[in-house]
Amino acid sequence: MEFTCRDNSELKKIAQEILMHFPHQRIFLLEGEMGAGKTTLTKAFCEILNCTSAASSPTFSIVNEYNSAQESKIYHFDCYRLKNENEALDLGIEDYLDSNFYCFIEWPEKIFNLIPSKHIVVRIVEENLNRKITVTEER
Question: Which candidate, 100, 52, 48, 45, places its Cα nearest to that of 76?
């Protein structure tokens, strides 16, 4: 799947299409340069999933946990500050990833060996004042 996003108002529709296209997937890897819009897209995912609180960047906490109106949880990771995969293991990342709750992971390359083989990769690239969003399924 591929989308061109001209402004942030389109992100909610894009997030909805992605979630509808992959209804059984729970692990989403968000790739892109600093400032590409990974957190902004995650906020759109959370809005579609009816989060009961506003999503925010987990840069300093590494993981934010949100509740959904459907009485489920959503986990949002920002692995940018992790020095190695052992730090993620110390956080209990395997429990999060095995929870069958939605996990949105920014900077997944920092913990790639810990990611389950079945996941969705969402790559965001800034291109001529637009965002090009490419979505692929890995198995």
Answer: 45
3-state class of 25 per DSSP?
Answer: coil
Model confidence at 46, pLDDT cuts 50, 70, 90, reads very high
User: CA 123, CA 72: separation in Å to the nearest integer?
Assistant: 26
What share of the chain in percent tops pLDDT 70? Answer: 94
pLDDT at 68: 85
Q: Which domains does the chain have, with CATH numbers?
A: 2-138 (3.40.50.300)
For residue 58, name the pLDDT band (cuts at 50, 70, 90): low
Tokens read off for 100: 């069958």
Phi/psi-derived region of residue 9, left when phi > 0, alpha when psi is between -120 and 50, beta in every other case: alpha
CB 30 within 8 A of CB 125: no
Q: Under 8 Å CB-to-CB from 104, ≥6 apart: which residues?
A: 28, 30, 42, 45, 74, 75, 76, 77
